[in-house]
Amino acid sequence: MGGFSYDRDVYSSSSSSSWGSSSDSFGASSYSKSRLSSSTLDVSMLPNGKILESKTKNPIIIVLDVTGSNIDFARVVYDKLPMFYGQIEQKGYLKDFDIAICAVGDAYHDNYPLQIGSFAKGIELDSWLEKLVLEGEGGSFGEESYELAAYYLLQNTKFADGSEPIVFFIGDEIPYSEVSKSQAETFGIKYTQPIEPFGALREKVKDNVFMLLNKACGKYFKDDITEHWEKLLAPQHVVKINEEKAIVDIMLGIISMLYSSRTLETYKLDMKGRGQTTERIEGVSQSLKSLSTALVPVKVSGTITTTGSGKKSTQKGKRL
């Protein structure tokens, strides 16, 4: 199954999954492992002086944690990106979109802690994914440089007027407590004053920032990590990944419910239609339940101001 303009095989395996150190145990294909094997970062992926610009209605930014405990997510995304792209087109979730693939590591330890791919469409996305360096390192204190990536996206992105971007972070740790001025300047990011970057980024992209949270080191969800992210983002935008190989299904579900008037129940029908198992559908539903509840249509007789998923509406009974 692939998109109309993304003609490449989709690699997948059984829906049952367990985390492990090898691609086989995680569910990524040997093909993606061979294609995502760069050891030196291509200059086009360097953030220094780069402005990430999209002219589409719905730019999608996927920020992959490529430290040791999350390294295989990039391979799974590579395996299933044609399906992701194709489902958005075929189901009409979005009419005008492009995708940028970025990566984050630990700026205190890694050689390439911030990797920025350009917005692209269709098969061109492969070339950006294949430029990623999956260092598989990171720090040892439960923090990664997500805050630096958020600060880059705040300062170095440009979107069309009236656009509705969406940003997905995929990882299992928490960000450092503040943006380092020296790190920002090292990567060519304008630094003016201390700022909490996630709140400002949420404002810039109309609150469409999501943390897709994996189990810490692939083992279990830690309450302190979950609570930390829920303070930075709208709580329903912290989405737990119950099954690692379901990451693309989760992103599609979020997009479909935010932009295409899908409810969780109708999105479950979409998953069933593309051959997902009952186990996968139930796991994804559990992950998306909180967001789905926040997006329930409000039934009112007059005009009110209400909040759902961090957005405000003053329209009668509008789905938020």
What would you note in describing this structure?
The chain is an alpha/beta fold and about 325 residues long. The protein has 11 helices and 12 strands. The strands form 4 sheets. It has a 6-stranded mixed sheet, with helices on both faces. Strands 1-6 form a two-stranded parallel sheet. A two-stranded parallel ribbon has the order 5-8. Helix 3 (about 70-90) packs parallel to helix 9 and helix 10 (about 265-275) runs antiparallel to helix 11. The longest helix has 20 residues, at about 70-90. It starts with about 20 loop residues before the first helix and ends in a 7-residue tail after the last strand. The relative contact order is 0.14. Residues about 15-25 and about 300-320 have low confidence and may be disordered.
Concise synopsis of the structure shown:
The chain has 320 residues and is of the alpha/beta class.
Overview features:
12 strands; single chain; 11 helices; alpha/beta; 320 residues; 34% helix
Radius of gyration (Å): 19 Å
Largest sheet: 6 strands, mixed
Residue runs with pLDDT of under 50 for 5 or more positions:
13-25, 298-320
Strand content: 15-25%
What does the secondary structure layout of this molecule look like, with pairings?
Elements: H1 23-26, H2 30-35, E1 52-54, E2 58-65, H3 71-90, E3 97-104, E4 114-116, H4 124-129, E5 143-144, H5 146-155, E6 157-159, E7 166-171, E8 174-175, H6 181-186, H7 197-204, E9 209-213, H8 223-232, E10 238-240, H9 247-259, H10 264-273, H11 278-294, E11 306-308, E12 311-313
Parallel strand pairs: 1-6, 2-3, 2-7, 5-8, 7-9, 9-10
Antiparallel strand pairs: 3-4, 11-12
Helix pairs in contact: 3-9, 5-7, 9-11, 10-11
